[in-house]
Design a protein that fits this description.
The complex is a heterodimer of chains A (94) and B (332).
Chain A (H helix, E strand, L loop, with lengths): L6 E7 L7 E7 L3 H12 L7 E6 L11 H5 L23
Antiparallel strand pairs in A: 1-2, 1-3
Chain B lengths: L8 H5 L9 H12 L12 H20 L1 H5 L8 H26 L5 H9 L17 H21 L5 H29 L3 H20 L11 H6 L7 H18 L10 E3 L4 E3 L5 H11 L3 H14 L1 H20 L1
Antiparallel strand pairs in B: 1-2
The chains are: A alpha+beta (94), B mainly alpha (332).
């Protein structure tokens, strides 16, 4: 059996000024082919001006089982938001 | 927190004249920028644009990191657990802002190590404001209110700066910055409404931080040699004096509202201009601080250098551990 082409994650910049955003993935033998496949698969309707392809195996994802430990501690830090503070009546531009 | 556009020694080496660039590419670049398009890392850009950005973004990053020191000075002595949690969160934000900005600068081809080395050797500058000491708790209020207030005024237009990664970092920073000024103003309000001694403390902090805050916007427009080029390239979106005036106009009523007075005998509302007239800024003091003669400049750099040196073994140990694990995994 022949070896399967590796998987690549595709990121598209919709227009300059915006960050690349994950769009999906493609199989390809190398980076150049992955770019061309991504272009054919994900940008047929002017979805973007720039592409990134990243080998899927290079992505380290957080474990969903750890989500609470990772993100819940931010929930009780309301003082990180401006609405936590009282500003005297009539004071503007703050 | 904020950057003043300061010259450093590396700028003197930035000798590539614009005329040496491919005129067609340069014209296309200028047209894109003039049309408010964003420039992204892989786009062609003039050498001087790249160098100006590396200088400005790294100075901005250095300011965030050095800016953690004056406030960090009061974390262990905050007057309540609430104030302590808030101050910790704020200083943590400043560290994050420094990291976003270093990362934005790295997209231009410089490295973290190069930038940190430039700071520690004194070649790179950071905002003059952080070379003043934080003598009392009220200084933490004054910094949040005035220094972060000035930073917000400066940073809001930078969300539309022409270099994409810098603009995106500024969007994130401005969003996070919004609580910093309020927590400072809340401290000042509480002190101003407290005992006579507390009110005196608040007024003393305002007296000491007011003028250095006005200096944060950088030299006056007629003495700001890099400004014209930076405005043309949309690296900068508004002039130093315009933003400074906006800051004065917004801040004076905030001081009045809590019964504090701005330490400027020449401050006066000008009906015709629809703005405040204010007294002359002592630019000699500003340039002295830029030259490294600020009251605590040496302590600030010593603190940064020792943090870097004291942490060296941790960085080396983490790398050694990762390498050992990689070898072990490969052997399995």
């Amino acid at each position: 059996m022949s070896k399967e082409w590796p998987l690549w994650e595709v990121f598209i910049r919709a227009k300059n000024g915006l960050a690349h955003k994950h769009a999906g993935s493609v199989h390809a033998a190398d980076a150049r082919m992955a770019l061309e496949a991504a272009r054919d698969t994900y940008t047929r309707r002017m979805e973007g001006v720039s592409l990134w392809v990243v080998p899927s195996v290079s992505i380290t994802a957080s474990d969903p089982g750890e989500a609470e430990a990772l993100f819940a501690p931010a929930q009780d830090k309301v003082y990180r938001h401006p609405t936590f503070y009282t500003v005297p009546d009539g004071v503007k531009n703050i | 927190m904020y950057t003043t556009e300061l010259k450093d020694k590396s700028q003197k080496q930035a000798a590539t004249p614009l005329s040496a660039e491919d005129p067609e590419r340069l014209a296309a670049f200028e047209a894109r920028v003039a049309a408010d398009d964003f420039i992204e890392p892989k786009d062609w850009m003039p050498d001087a644009y790249r160098k100006t950005l590396v200088r400005q973004i790294s100075q901005h990053a250095h300011s965030e990191i050095v800016g953690m020191l004056p406030e960090g000075n009061w974390i262990t002595r905050a007057p309540s657990l609430r104030r302590k949690a808030v101050l910790l969160a704020k200083v943590q934000d400043e560290g994050g802002h420094g990291l976003y900005l270093y990362a934005a600068a790295e997209t231009l081809g410089t490295s973290r190590d190069e930038m940190v080395e430039a700071l520690h050797s004194g070649r790179a500058k950071y905002s003059t404001i952080f070379n003043y000491p934080t003598l009392t708790w009220a200084d933490i209020g004054a910094i949040g209110w005035l220094v972060d207030g000035a930073a917000i005024m400066n940073q809001v237009p930078l969300q539309r700066t022409s270099y994409g990664p810098y603009a995106r970092a500024m969007v994130r920073i401005c969003k996070e910055e919004s609580f910093h000024q309020r927590q400072g103003y809340e401290i000042m309000t509480t002190l101003a409404k407290g005992s006579a001694e507390q009110k005196r403390m608040a007024q003393d902090a305002l007296d000491r931080w007011w003028w250095p805050s006005l200096m944060m916007f950088g030299p006056p427009d007629d003495n700001s040699p890099n400004s014209a080029q930076s405005m043309r390239w949309r690296i900068k979106r508004e002039s130093n004096d315009e933003i400074r005036q906006r800051f004065v106009d917004a801040t004076v009523p905030q001081a009045e509202a809590i019964g504090l007075s701005i330490p400027d005998a020449d401050l006066k509302w000008n009906e015709a201009r629809d703005a405040y007239d204010f007294g002359a800024i002592d630019w000699e003091e500003f340039y002295a601080v830029v030259r490294g003669e600020g009251p605590v400049a040496k302590e600030r750099m010593a603190a940064r250098v020792s943090a870097r040196e004291d942490g060296r073994w941790v960085r080396e140990a983490a790398l050694a551990h990762a390498e050992k694990r990689a070898v072990r995994l490969a052997a399995e």
